[in-house]
Amino acid sequence: MVFIKRVTLLCIVALCSFNIYAQSKNDEPRYLINVSKVKVKGFGNTHSELSLVNSRAAYFGGLSGAFLLNYKYYVGAYSYSISSVSQWDDIYSQGYHPVNNPSAPLYTNSRLCFNHGGLMLGYVHNYSNLWHPSIELKLGTGKVSLVDMDFNITDFDSHHSDRVGEVSPELGLEVNLTRWFKIKFGAGYRFVFGVDNAEYVNKDGLNKRLFSSNQFSSPYAAIGFYFGSFGPRTNEK
Fold first, then answer.
1. Is residue 223 within 8 Å of residue 182, measured between CB atoms?
2. Count of domains for the chain
3. β-bridge partners, 68
């Protein structure tokens, strides 16, 4: 019993001595990810985009917002909607023929609606320079539909709707106007996929694809106005 007590006492003394030594070496806890070295900021922006839809010039407008990490990397969400008017062909019923089986069209005076939104990822290179490049990738989903030009654009007015997917890689050139405001000029390509194979009958009695990926996939030019925190204050480390 005396031997066991002595061994126990020696173990306690050794453990306490090791604990004191370890604390004297480093009092700060250690973590796998040191978030104390990550500066988390944020920004919001408005953006405009000029591209082609159905082989016609199309204007898009939208909003986005993101978390900015160390002023270099960002992750957020975006949304775009077509603003320009693109009129669509009149749609006739199946079996229509202008000579053999004439009839009034089912849908007339229709315009195209196209909106998409989703995840936005990006990297800003040399953010402290007045002019600096950036890379961005947008991954989203959206909806293509037709609406009557005489009605408000709502889900209740839309017809021939189709859900689609969208991927847009983009290269940009940014200019810092102030610490909290910058402008970005970008160019990219919008890939649209997942378009269904629905058809419609046109005024000549021919069956045509209602929508196709080629109608919406297009190169684009963009400009964005960014508001947020894009660099440390003069007294920040």
1. no
2. 1
3. 41, 74
Whether residue 83 is contained in a domain is answered as yes
Instruction: Say if CB 191 and CB 166 are below 8 A apart.
Output: yes
User: Could you give the CA distance from residue 146 to residue 89 in angstroms, rounded to a whole number?
Assistant: 10
Q: Is the pTM here over 0.85, yes or no?
A: no
Are 41 and 233 in contact by the 8 Å Cβ rule? The answer is no
Mean pLDDT for the chain? 84
* pLDDT, tens digit (0-9, with 9 covering 90-100), for 169-186: 999 999 999 999 999 999
pLDDT (tens digit per residue) in 192-235: 999 998 889 888 888 889 999 999 999 999 999 999 999 887 76
Residue 65 sits at the vertex; the CA angle it makes with 61 and 69, to the nearest 5 degrees, is: 140
The four Cα atoms 177, 182, 188, 193 give a dihedral, to 10 degrees, of: -170
Q: Which domain holds residue 53?
A: 39-228
In Å, how far are 26, 159, 235 from 156, measured between CA atoms? 65, 8, 55
17 inside domain: no
Backbone angle region of 205, left / alpha / beta, with phi > 0 → left and psi within -120 to 50 → alpha: left
pLDDT of residue 144: 93
Report the C-alpha gap between 212 and 223 in whole angstroms.
27
CATH number of the domain that residue 136 is part of: 2.40.160.20
In a domain, 175, yes or no: yes
The confidence score (pLDDT) of residue 5 equals 46
Quick: pLDDT tens for 70-79.
999 999 999 9
Residue 111 has pLDDT above 50, yes or no: yes
- In eight-state DSSP terms, residue 139 is E
Whether residue 11 lies inside any domain: the answer is: no
